[in-house]
Design goal:
Blueprint: E1 2-8, H1 15-26, E2 30-34, H2 43-46, E3 49-64, H3 74-78, E4 84-87, E5 90-93, H4 103-107, E6 113-127, E7 133-139, H5 146-164, E8 168-175, H6 179-185, E9 190-195, H7 199-215, E10 218-223, H8 230-242, E11 246-250, H9 256-262, H10 267-270, H11 274-291
């Protein structure tokens, strides 16, 4: 079993659209994992039917037992996150502001404050339109520790792939260079970098590849909307050559991408022309590079 993760240094490069297209091309040979848990949207193209739903707990949150509280005010005075307020003569914890540090519980003379596990979101196992399975998640509003939720999604997808004897875990990774990206890269066999020919596209491609190098994972790159800015595309290709990153393909700007999304389809389902051929060739090339 191989793990292929698709990432981008910035949002809006077409990463999820391309990953969903690969999922359709791969069919039942892959288990899909949507690890962009902060802003998950792959379900819009995969039409999941949820079979398993599990709560995800991470971190802690303070809770005040009002029957034990004597309103001494020590907790509100020491909270550095302004998470405690006085309302109707009761001290109340704001769950969005509480960092779960536990200091208020320590100094409470009546032991009226306890820290409890925080419900940070939910994760799901779904059947998708390709006949395969997808593991995905939804991070709660204001919740943190998305890196841990990414790890949970990946672990469940790998377990399913082993049980079902699937060849590949295909991961739609989060954008950027933060903790969720690190979590999505951990244990992967190959990284597909999706970029676009803009100043920020090249800048953020360089930043995210610095992370990939630290993990010593082989990488290839797809340049989306490559024909929009030929000069910047040439710069990206020079960077790929310099860093020994495989140049997988160039995708042209095409409004059919948007038209397909409005119908809940990937471009390879919507378009039978050059775009589908290019993405099919890209997926075959990626599989070859993974196994080399």
């Amino acid at each position: 079993m191989k793990e292929i993760v698709v990432i981008s240094g910035k949002g809006g490069t077409g990463k999820t659209s391309i990953t969903a297209s690969f999922a359709v091309l791969a069919g039942t040979s892959v288990v899909v994992a949507d690890c962009d848990v902060d802003a998950a949207d792959m379900h819009l193209l995969m039409q999941p039917r949820v079979d398993v739903t599990e709560d995800f707990y991470s971190g802690q949150i303070a809770n005040i037992n009002q029957s034990q509280c004597t309103r001494c005010g020590k907790c509100i005075n020491i909270c550095r996150f302004d998470a405690i307020s006085l309302r109707n003569k009761q001290y109340i914890i704001d769950p969005l502001s509480c960092e779960g540090c536990g200091y208020c519980a320590r100094i409470c003379p009546m032991k009226a404050i306890v820290n409890r596990e925080r419900l940070a979101g939910q994760w799901y196992i779904s059947n998708i339109k390709t006949g395969s399975l997808m593991v995905h998640a939804k991070l709660g509003i204001g919740a943190d520790n998305s890196g841990k939720l990414v790890a949970k999604v990946k672990d469940e997808a790998k377990e399913i792939a082993l049980e079902e004897r699937r060849e590949i875990v295909l991961i739609d990774g989060p954008p950027g260079v933060g903790c969720p990206v690190l979590s999505s890269l951990s244990g992967s066999n190959y990284v597909v970098l999706v970029t676009e020919p803009t100043v920020s596209g090249l800048h953020d491609l360089k930043r995210v590849y610095d992370l990939v190098k630290k993990f010593r994972i082989k990488a290839g790159c797809i340049i989306n909307k490559a024909d929009v800015n030929p000069a910047k595309t040439a710069e990206i290709k020079q960077f790929l050559t310099r860093e020994n990153i495989a140049h997988i393909s160039d995708l042209p700007y095409d409004e059919n991408f948007t038209k397909a999304m409005t119908q809940g389809k990937t471009i390879v389902e919507f378009d039978n022309g050059q775009l589908k051929n290019t993405l099919t060739d890209s997926w075959n090339k990626i599989k070859q590079l993974v196994n080399d």
